[in-house]
């Protein structure tokens, strides 16, 4: 049994560390999302207690089309389950199904310095481009802090771009604990090893904002076409090439078998082969790599009730946790009577 201690008085007994992470349903998931984030969440579910959610409240800061948001939220659930997130091992839910998180957001916001949020990158970047930001984007890190603190999470696996938000979360929890006594467990960021590494079809970081993505569940023919159009340099066939610096090879490394990767690296160094060859190998490897997930997704698509049941069971479990934390926090700060706690 692990004893998880915040700083002084608050101790929780657990048999496993609690891992929590969220992913926004702002588009269909691409290879960058999978190899940079989702794959690790799924690996962690076997060793730790996992809480994973689809951050639709965060997505609402960018998607203003109700049907699209509903569809993307459902697709995200199907994708995660098809890729191996196992509801018997981890809790999968939709962020907005736990309204306690919004209540906690307000409590945290009352003690959040404006300056702290003004320094956060999403807001800062928008402002620096002369664009007007709304309060949702400004307060985005507070909602994210509530997401984490509501479940007494210990570790938060995230990409490098989210580390600043975990720091904000820790600052808010520390400040609240300082004023009202131990109410929150302090979480730690676990930066994902391969985050920010997956290149897109133009060689830059794969991202939906750069329009260079390859979708995990995109039609196989469309994927093959995209791979065939991946930009390459124009060195002659016979020149030897360094595989490590080539984005096609980097993608192949994620999906090929060990032997195929070694053979391909040898071909690069030896020269005398064309990029068409690795493109074809990459398309074959990606089809093979995601074949089981595609089958699983097709099977889940035919059972929408099962998917809804999984999300509703996940939400029930998540709400129970969040309600207990909210009671503790509301009692600590004096908006809930001690007898009701
Ligand atoms: P996008 O850049 O397409 O908008 P998100 O910001 O929604 O993607 O990313 C969701 C998760 O996927 C984050 O944890 C992020 O770090 C990870 N991720 C996104 N793109 C990549 C990439 N090219 N390489 C590695 N990780 C990525
Ligand atoms: N902001 C995260 C992203 O864009 C998604 C997210 C929302 C999240 N709440 C979270 C991640 C809590 C980890 C923990 O990727």
3D structure, described in words:
The chain has 341 residues and is mainly α. It has two domains: 2-197 and 303-340, Rossmann fold; 218-289, Tyrosyl-Transfer RNA Synthetase (Orthogonal Bundle). Helix content is 52%, strand content 10%. It contains 14 helices and seven strands. The strands form three sheets. A three-stranded parallel β-sheet has the order 3-4-5. It has a two-stranded antiparallel ribbon with strand order 1-2. Strand 1 and strand 2 (11-14) form a beta hairpin. Helix 10 (247-255) runs parallel beside helix 12. The protein starts with a strand and ends in an 8-residue tail after the last helix. The model has no long low-confidence stretch (mean pLDDT 92). Bound molecules: adenosine-5'-diphosphate (ADP) and tryptophan.
Secondary-structure-derived class: mainly alpha
CATH fold label of the largest domain: Rossmann fold
Strand order across the biggest sheet? 3-4-5
Terminal residue distance: 26 Å
- The number of helical runs is 14
Provide a brief overview of the structure:
The chain is mainly alpha-helical. The chain has helices at residues 31-44, 56-59, 66-82, 100-109, 114-118, 121-128, 135-149, 163-180, 220-228, 247-255, 258-270, 275-289, 291-301, 304-333, and strands at residues 2-5, 11-14, 18-23, 49-54, 90-94, 155-158, 188-191.
């Amino acid at each position: 049994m692990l004893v998880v201690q915040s700083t002084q008085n608050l101790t929780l007994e657990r048999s496993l560390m609690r891992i929590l992470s969220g992913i926004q349903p702002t588009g269909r998931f691409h290879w960058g999302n999978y190899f940079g984030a989702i794959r690790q969440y799924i690996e962690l579910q076997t060793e730790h207690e996992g809480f994973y959610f689809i951050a639709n409240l965060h997505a609402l800061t960018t998607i203003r089309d109700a049907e699209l948001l509903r569809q993307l939220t459902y697709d995200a659930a199907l994708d995660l389950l098809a890729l191996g997130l196992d509801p018997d091992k981890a809790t999968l839910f939709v962020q907005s199904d736990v309204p306690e998180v919004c209540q906690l957001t307000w409590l945290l916001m009352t003690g959040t310095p404006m300056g702290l949020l003004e320094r956060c990158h999403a807001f800062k970047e928008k402002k620096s481009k002369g664009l007007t930001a709304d309060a949702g984007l400004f307060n985005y890190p507070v909602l994210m802090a509530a997401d984490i603190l509501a479940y007494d999470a210990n570790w938060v696996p995230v990409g490098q771009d989210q580390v600043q938000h975990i720091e904000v979360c820790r600052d808010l929890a520390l400040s609240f604990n300082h004023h009202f006594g131990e109410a929150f467990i302090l979480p730690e960021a676990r930066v994902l090893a391969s985050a920010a590494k997956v290149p897109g079809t133009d060689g830059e970081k794969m991202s939906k904002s750069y329009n260079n993505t390859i979708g995990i569940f995109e039609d196989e023919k469309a994927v093959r076409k995209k791979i065939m159009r991946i930009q390459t340099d124009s060195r002659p066939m016979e020149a030897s090439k360094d595989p490590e610096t080539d984005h096609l090879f980097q993608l192949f490394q994620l999906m090929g078998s060990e032997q195929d990767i070694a053979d391909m690296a040898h071909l690069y160094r030896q020269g005398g082969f064309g990029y068409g060859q690795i493109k074809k190998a990459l398309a074959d490897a990606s089809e093979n790599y995601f074949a089981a997930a595609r089958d699983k997704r097709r099977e889940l698509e035919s059972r929408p009730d099962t998917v809804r049941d999984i999300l509703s069971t996940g939400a029930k479990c998540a709400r129970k946790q969040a309600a207990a934390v909210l009671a503790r926090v509301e009692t600590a700060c004096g908006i809930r009577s001690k007898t009701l706690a």
